[in-house]
Amino acid sequence: MIVGFLADIHEDIVHLDLALEVLAHRRCETIVCLGDIVGFTLPFYRHIRTRDAEACVSRIRNRCGAAVAGNHDLYAVRKVPEHKAGFEYGPDWYGLDYEVRAKKARNRIWLYEDNEIPARLSPASRGYLGGLRETERLTFDGLSCLVSHFCCPDFSGSSVFSPGHAFHLRKHFEFMDGLGVRIGFSGHGHPDGCLIVDEENITLHGFGTIPLADEKQWIVAPCVARTTRASGCMVLDTDKARLEVIPLKASPIDLA
Predict the structure, then answer these.
(1) Less Cβ crowding at N or C end of the chain, within 10 Å?
(2) Mind listing the pLDDT tens digit for each residue in 103-124?
């Protein structure tokens, strides 16, 4: 089975359409979105004049067989994470003043109002984002996978944390064991290519074809959106047990 993966679109409709064309050319039988469909944060993204949150949500809703919520998707609809990674949001997190939330957060979780432009979304698109789960267990031609925007216990990527060692993924691998899966797919990290973590190593792969090992692995997809890092998408071939990490052609960067 041929499965496409998209991650971290961040309202970049130009690169999303390009990625969808690439996946169609690879004859993907289904496509999975790994979260952060929306969320345009200055100064990290370079497509301010062409950003289109509504169009991106529409494409994902119509073209993807499955999708999960990322931290920016949750913020767009003012929804706190289901998996809170130990942080106490309280009963009315977004009803609090920004300064109050900043003091409570203490750089443990992301806040957005200081640099994120509000997403323009219809009620239907807000409803779609609000209905996305933080994890999904999917099976492709007998291969069961966990998909999430980030890793356990912070599946949405809402906390200020980045794993620096393989042992930081212990809880994620334990969660995968509980689901009976050996491979997980996520976004959030925006790697230049593809990041693969097993129980001993974190390895950054560039773009190209990567054989999949017969062991537990957490795989982080590249970012679709135009940023200072390389953008791309991924294709899983379950028959050949391999992953193709595909760069998206450089587009003119809009700095206006």
Answers:
(1) C
(2) 999 889 999 988 899 999 999 9
Determine, yes or no, domain membership for 256: no
Check which CATH number belongs to the domain holding 229 and give it: 3.60.21.10
pLDDT of 253 above 70: no
Structure tokens at 50: 């062409």
Task: Examine the pLDDT at 194 and tell me if it is beyond 60.
Answer: yes
Q: Is residue 203 part of a domain?
A: yes
What residue ranges in 19-68 does DSSP mark as E strands? 30-33, 40-41, 66-67
- Residue 34 contacts residue 186 (beta carbons within 8 Å): yes
Domain extent at residue 181: 2-247
Q: How far apart, in whole angstroms, are the C-alpha atoms of residue 187 and residue 222?
A: 7
9, 36 Cβ separation under 8 angstroms? yes
Report the distance separating Cα 132 and Cα 79, nearest Å: 11
Give the count of domains, the chain: 1
User: Which amino acid is it at 125?
Assistant: S
